[in-house]
Amino acid sequence: MTTPAIETILTEDRRYPPPEDFAAQANAQPDIYERSFDEFWETEGRERLSWFEPFTQLYEWKPPYAKWFLGGKTNVTYNCVDRHVERGLGDKVAYHWEGEPEGERRDVTFAELQRETTRLANALKTLGVGKGTAVGIYMGMVPEAAIAMLACARIGAPHTVVFGGFSADSLSDRLHDMECEVLITQDEAWRRGTTVPLKRTADEALREAPSVRSVVVLRRTGNDVPMTEGRDFWWHELVEGEPDDPASCPCEPMDSEDLLYLLYTSGTTAKPKGIAHTTAGYLCGVATTHHYIFDVEPDSVYWCAADIGWVTGHSYIVYGPLCNGTTGVLYEGTPDFPDKDRWWEIVERYEVDILYTAPTAIRAHMKWGHEHAEKHDLSSLRLLGSVGEPINPEAWEWYRRHIGGGRTPVVDTWWQTETGMIMISPLPGITTTKPGSATKPFPGVDAAVYDESGNEVGPGGGGYLVLRRPWPAMLRGIYKDDERYAETYWSKYGDVYFAGDGARIDEDGDFWLLGRVDDVMNVSGHRISTIEVESALVDHPRVAEAAVCGRNDAQTGQAIVAYVTLKGGEDGSVEMLEELRNHVARKIGPIAKPANIVFTPELPKTRSGKIMRRLLRDVAEQRTLGDTTTLADPGVVEEIRDRAAAEATEE
Ligand code: PRX
User: Fold this and answer.
1) How far apart are CA 113 and CA 239, in angstroms?
2) In CATH, what is the architecture of 524-650?
3) In the chain, at which end, N or C, are there fewer CB atoms within 10 A of the end residue's CB?
4) CA end-to-end distance (rounded Å), the chain
5) What pLDDT band is residue 269 in, cutting at 50, 70 and 90?
């Protein structure tokens, strides 16, 4: 018998069939799974998007490159904004915006979005921006960030949005790689009651990004920032006098395959990859998934609590929801400012019915305690979603129970910057959900699990997640690096996309994501995924969050080291340590029992909230730390190192 690529040790028996009333009204009904690949995407493409010229061919697949909706001409902003206004929905709210400083609120209707987008697009034209001119966007969570993206798409200028928490170096790398000619930013952003100096950071970045000729600066906090004469323009001054009538700046007819944006993703290695997304396939993919997976209704108030700077923000705050004419919530600040109930206050105020967030946020709320949610009426919520990392079953349960009132379906959605759209997810009116499982590939998506040699792994087995057919929103390559594109995603199994994630399929055909394959541990010849051991730890009532990794061990190859955060900021003890080791042994077996446990108030995370196990491995093996530039808070890993060292001396 060959050793499986990844073994399965965690079993989860809880099941939640969709509530009957939800199922009866759901956008996706069971026959959706009977639709053929071609028919599904053909129909969605024709009916969900408005075309200036219809497409003549559904797709073309010349591995590893795909094209979709060939021959078609359309415009993303026309689909997201103008057509809704033309259909009489101009007064519908596109975004309920909530600023971080209390009391600062603004509703932006579709008509306003159209006017503001047109004005900015006209202003950008005066700076020489036209079809094909690359534009960088470096902003916080303000409506103008979406307006900037839409203004670019209106005139056919591809954008790259750089998350507002990134440093000057990260910003200049991206601006330089894409050869951006214009940067749109703001004076400062609000964050947890203090300001983030976006313009000053941009100034520093621009020294290394000579392609940028002009900078547009939105006034947000109003504090003084340096402006360079001839290069920098205040947004409000630049748009003054520009017409806001959509006819003054018609939406540019774009080819289906014209570049919409690049989004840089760093992964674990040095140079970020410019992931390329094009026009029609991307928009169709994000709008279709948004409609069926989130079950949006015409009167929904949908809140995706991600940042616009990540792909989740692009696909499910801006392009997908706006294409569907959905009212969304846009919140500028952090979940704990000024208090830990800020999110729940927002849900109550706007009567949010759909909430989409990440496991890291859910675990933070778990750590703070459910009493914060209890202060508010969350009965408007109808559906909850999760994305970004595998969700521990206990976090899933907590989310459903304390936020969803034990009533709402929870959709755990698997996808990547590269896939552009959600690929594996329950459909909330159809799927019986299981805490911790992303369940089924979306209709028109062909996902499978392969072993090392490329054979499909049957039910129960673990292996590597692959996608066997192209999909409309798939990346069209890595900008200016064909070789890296082929090598990263297409070299393991030939013409099959390798996602870099481990997964298993259970007896019902449901997918369980097991994290990045680089994180898989090898203990006495057993290949164990980090997520299952972490979930066993989080299953303990006092544990809020856990990360595990393997460290070299003379006897077992690798030994498991766990880093654990307890609820309510509690400190660990020797008794607790033993209790947790035994808990894991009971829950999933002695093989997975951590050799040691380090208690820590925080775990090292990327700026998008993913746990960085690679650094924990460095700590466990007492190596010098690898690249820490993607860490959200570099202090955390230092603290963990001190704690681990202290424990080693105590032993
Ligand atoms: O490892 C998977 C994890 O996040 C990776 C993609 O990250 P990024 O490109 O930043 O996009 C995040 C938002 C789509 C994947 O390769 N991941 C994302 N969603 C899930 C997940 N892992 C398990 N379950 C998920 N639902």
Assistant:
1) 14
2) 2-Layer Sandwich (3.30)
3) N
4) 40
5) low
Name the 3-class secondary structure at 56. coil
Please tell me the distance from the alpha carbon of residue 505 to that of residue 5, in angstroms, as a whole number: 13
Strand 259-265 relative to strand 273-278, pairing: antiparallel
pLDDT single digits (tens) 124-151:
999 999 999 999 999 999 999 999 999 9
Q: Angle CA(54)–CA(275)–CA(140) in degrees, nearest 5?
A: 100
Specify the pairing of strand 354-357 against strand 301-304: parallel
Q: Does domain 20-450 have CATH number 3.40.50.12780?
A: yes
**Pocket residue to mutate for ligand 1, from 513, 519, 606, most atoms within 8 A of Cβ:** 513
Whole-number Å distance, alpha carbon 290 to ligand 1 midpoint, is: 17
DSSP code at position 126: H
CA of 414 to the centre of ligand 1 (A): 6
**If pLDDT is split at 50, 70 and 90, which confidence band does 650 have?**
low
CA of 418 to the centre of ligand 1 (A): 10
Tell me the three-class secondary structure of 329-368, residue by residue.
Answer: EEECCCCCCCCCCHHHHHHHHHCCCEEEECHHHHHHHHHH
CB-based contacts of 37, cutoff 8 Å, min separation 6: 444, 446, 469
Residue 90 CA to residue 82 CA, distance in Å, equals 9
Map 538-585 to HEC letters. HCCCCEEEEEEEEEEECCCEEEEEEEEEEHHHCCCCHHHHHHHHHHHH
Phi, psi of 377 (to 5 degrees): -85, 105
Question: Given a cut of 90, is residue 267 above it in pLDDT?
Answer: no
Q: Where exactly are the structural domains of the chain?
A: 20-450, 524-650
Structure tokens at 421: 């759209």
Dihedral through CA 339, CA 343, CA 349, CA 355, nearest 10?
A: -170
Q: CB of 66 within 8 A of CB of 420?
A: no
390 Cα: distance to centroid of ligand 1 (angstroms): 8
The helix or strand, by DSSP H or E, that contains position 459, with its residue range, turns out to be none
Q: Which two tokens stand for residue 310?
A: 């990540």
Identify the residue whose C-alpha is closest to ligand 1 atom 22.
389
How far, in Å, is the centroid of ligand 1 from the Cα of 388?
4
Note whether 437 and 463 are within 8 A (CB): no
Ligand 1-lining residues (CB < 6 angstroms): 265, 311-312, 387-390, 412-417, 438, 499-501, 513, 516, 608
Distance 613 CA to ligand 1 centre (A): 15
Q: Which helix (H) or strand (E) holds 92?
A: none
- Indicate which atom in ligand 1 lies nearest the CA of residue 415: 14
Q: Decide if 20-450 and 524-650 have a common fold.
A: no
* Residue 649, pLDDT above cutoff 70: no
pLDDT reading at 288 higher than 50: yes
Atom of ligand 1 nearest to the CA of 315: 14
Retrieve residue 501's tokens.
Answer: 């994630």
379-424 tens-digit pLDDT: 999 999 999 999 999 999 999 999 999 999 999 999 999 999 999 9
Tokens at 626, concatenated: 């690898």
